[in-house]
Amino acid sequence: MLQILENFSLKNFNTFGIDASARYFVEINHEDELVELFMDPQWLQMPRLILGGGSNMLFVKDFDGLVIRINIRGIEHRINHQEVFIEAGAGEVWNDLVNFCVARDYAGIENLSLIPGSVGASPIQNIGAYGVELKDVFRSCRAFEIATGEFKTFSKEDCQFGYRDSIFKNELKEKLIIVSVKFQLSLIPNINLKYGAIEQELANRNISSPTIKEVSQVVSHIRVSKLPDPSTIGNAGSFFKNPVIADEQFHEVQSKFPEVVHYPAGDGLVKLAAGWLIEQCGWKGKVVGHTGTWKNQALVLVNHGGATGEEVYSLSSQIIDSVYTKFGIVLDREVNIIS
Fold first, then answer.
1. Which one of 123, 228, 230, 339 has the lowest number of neighbouring Cβ atoms within 10 Å?
2. Which tens digit of pLDDT belongs to each residue from 243-290?
3. Does domain 75-186 have CATH number 3.30.465.10?
């Protein structure tokens, strides 16, 4: 029997540590429980929020509806020649899946080490880091369609992946609940070192031909050195997307700021480092009330203790304004704003 809790505190269920509450809260441990839940029509008519690891959201106020925490676990794997097929429950911790694969020499997601959040959230956001995106290893996902009570499978093409984007953030937003994800990895590593920070750290360790385990360790080391631990200080990782702009606009920016950090994005586009833009505006390590930016990475907003969602959101708005004033570039929030 499902247990529906009322006036439930979400402070321990969001990595920002914002003290918001849900009018109703339920935890789903098996996909059949979703069918049971939505047999009651009151939950179909009420605002809903799907919660995984709570690592990519900011509660600006209490949630006046039903919060559904997905805790479906399990990792299955099979090998076909040199290909490895993995299926993981949506409630699995993303980094636990990465460690599971790296320990078995299943290559493909080692560059995505230490990204916070759950497996179920990974295709929604098309998570990515250090030259690798989820879509590179994604095969399919299984999701519960709320309106029909049926389970459907979505291929890579169905998902319409973009930069930190997918169909689940657009046309199908709030219509589906992902219950499991399938990945296609390999026993033959295709080491991706295109981001200089990885090459530099490998050189520091005198590693010239890295294994996927060594790449994972280096990526984890870089992330820990730059990003705060949510168990120590509240944060949601990178708060803003790296802006992607046209070559023409990039050359205008570069003419004024020759040192601008940038990466080719293909199709006449250039990706800029949002953290660098924010830092140039004087925000790195700045404390504003109970919130601020992280001392080692301006892209990360933090809760120094007791911050409200409104405070964090206000700070993000100030940062967006200052980057636009200085560079003429509009930053987009990567974190989901729950208001």
1. 339
2. 999 999 999 999 999 999 999 888 999 999 999 999 999 999 999 999
3. yes
